[in-house]
Every structure is written in C-alpha cells, then in structure tokens.
Amino acid sequence: MTSLAISTLGVILLVVLALVLVLAAGGYIAMTRRIRGREAGLQRELAHAEDALAQAHALDKGWDRKTLEAAARAAAAERFGDGIVGEPQLVQVIDRPGVDADQAVFRVESSDGSEHRITLGRAGGEWGPA
Questions:
Q1: Where residue 59 falls among pLDDT bands split at 50, 70, 90?
Q2: What's the pTM?
C-alpha cells in the first residue's frame, strides 16, 4: 500500500510540474510577442519623429537636437528627480506655423520600468515643459 501512495504522489507531482512548465513557456511566448510589437511601434514612432525633426530643422533653426535633449533631461529631472533611466527619446515633433507654438514630445523611462511622455514647448526661442 505504501508503494501505491508514493506512485500516486509521484504522478501528481509530475502533472503539477508539467503544468507549471507549460504555463511558463506560454507566458514567455506571450511576453516576447508583446515586447516585439511594442518595440516595432516605438521604432516607427522614432523614425517618424526623426523625419519631422529634420524637416523642421531645415525650415527654421530652433530645432537643435542637443538643445531639445538637454531641455527634455531638465524637464524629466524636474518632474521625476533621479528616477529616470537612460536618455529621453524624441517621439513626436509638432512644428506649427511660427515658433512659439512648436512642441516636441519625448519618451522617458523611470527606474521602476514605467514609460512617461514629456511635452516641451518653445516660448521666446527657449524650450521648456509645455
């Protein structure tokens, strides 16, 4: 009788182990697909912003990339403190007629892994939080 109880327990453990492995593999596959889809969307957004920035820079000289990134870092530091990881990524350029209506949208990642958008506006030739 003891050997029957052990083999029943062994079968139950094997079934539980197989279930855990199947769930872990399914979770990994779902996570990988989600990351790939999100990354592809971000790459399209970045390429579009890069094209818009080049066009805006060609039309007026207030769209200096280094100036924009410095303003985005300053705005992120003001809003999130030291909780920002990596460099801000320009994801959208809003180049309206005139210069004071221009906006630039940056993506920043905080230390807890969440993504945030920071919108900069231009007033009097200076970039700052919109």
A1: low
A2: 0.60
